[in-house]
Amino acid sequence: MRSLFYLLFFGLFAFSMFSCNKETTCTPKTVASEVATMQNFASTNGLSVQTHSSGMLYQIVNPGSGLTPALTSRVSVRYTGKLMNGTIFDSNTGVPVQFLLGQVIAGWQLGLPLIKKGGTIRLIIPSSLAYGCNAAGSIPGDSVLYFEVELVDVL
Fold first, then answer.
1. Is the pTM of this model over 0.70?
2. CATH fold of 28-154, please?
């Protein structure tokens, strides 16, 4: 009886170890495949956007007048992030939050240096410059993201 228990235990253990080690791969969408979604969002929301060389769309609301951030800069920001259906997935419009610019999604790394301290920018970021085909919290994989970001300070 004891040997049957060990056989079942180790069999289930081995099965769980091998079945959990499956690597899930995904194929990120191309910026070109998301252009229509991004332009439709801009049009629907009355945004007058420019196209960055990366394919990201942006609108400089206020260019600011202070320092321009670099990837090594610590920045202080207020922001709101939305999905293309308008759902807010993250927002910090009160006390500014600080982080190193080089440690956030590529869309922010490319977008924030387009403004200076005190500026505000709107970013429509293709999934390849955000989280790709991977989900992140309440953000589904392959999500184009919209952010309005106020660059409060460059430290």
1. yes
2. Chitinase A; domain 3 (3.10.50)
